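User: quick one, fold this
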Amino acid sequence: MWIHLQTVVHPREGAHNMKFKRSSLMTKLAILLLAAAATVTLVSLQSQLAEKERLTTELREQVAAVEQENQRLEAAIEETGSEESVKAIARQKLGLVENGEIIFYDIGS
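Assistant:
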């Protein structure tokens, strides 16, 4: 004996299933849009991070160069106080000579 059962769907239940499917589709679409926006933001932030890292490296190199120049200048300042340094500056900047020295000028050029 075979019994055939037929499922009867109430008209309201069919409408309810359509609303559920439609809202499920809208939810999936919203999640997809949020994921796309997050991906775009992530790519943008990675690009900005790479640029900032490059800039940081460049600035560190500049700082190292300035620190080296500062050390050179500090050494020059310390040497300036010595008698030999004062004599060298007087010769170069002021053209001074010591007693008994003879100066030759090149007037040919």
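User: anything notable?
Assistant: The chain is about 75% helix and 0% strand.
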